[in-house]
Amino acid sequence: MSERLHPYVIFLPAEKKDKILSAIFGSKGGVDILRYSLKQGISKSLYQKDLVAKLNYSNKTVIENLKTLTTLCVLNERMEKNEKDGRITWIKTYQLTTIGRWFALLLAEEELTEGEKTEILQSLFRTYLKQTKRLAEELCIDKKKLEETFREEMKNTQ
Q1: Where along the chain do its domains lie?
Q2: Which residues contact 101 (CB under 8 A, 6 or more apart)?
Q3: Rounded distance between C-alpha atoms, residue 75 and residue 99, angstroms
Q4: Which of 66, 71, 89, 158 is most enclosed, with most CB atoms within 10 A?
Q5: How far is CA 29 from CA 51, 91, 122, 134, in A?
Q6: Is 0.85 topped by the overall pTM?
């Protein structure tokens, strides 16, 4: 059977796995925030006021979802300096983490640019290799066997 497969492999911290999945997929708000991030561009900053305006959720709901996604390392929170009319204010901004980007890939592959897809896949592949290498070391598997398998699969043109 030759069907097109979508890359659904995501590495999650074992102790937070259930919380992360529940926070994102147990709440329409969490999913909508990730989709909004996709539309903006996965490297762009998100602003609370924009999320409230565009997603049609209350400020309280948006804040709760942002806090949850930040606590679970799906989003990074930063402070951005904003100067307007001679006044300086600090605004919280949010960006997808590596895990957040993986979820973005799950949600909407076709909304990502080729560069974003490449960046996410390379990050995913690098993490997969690190985890595989660590597991191979724990199981006393020779790394050369893994390299051999990798080379065979890279030559395979199916």
Answers
A1: 14-155
A2: 42, 119, 120, 123
A3: 8
A4: 66
A5: 10, 21, 28, 35
A6: no
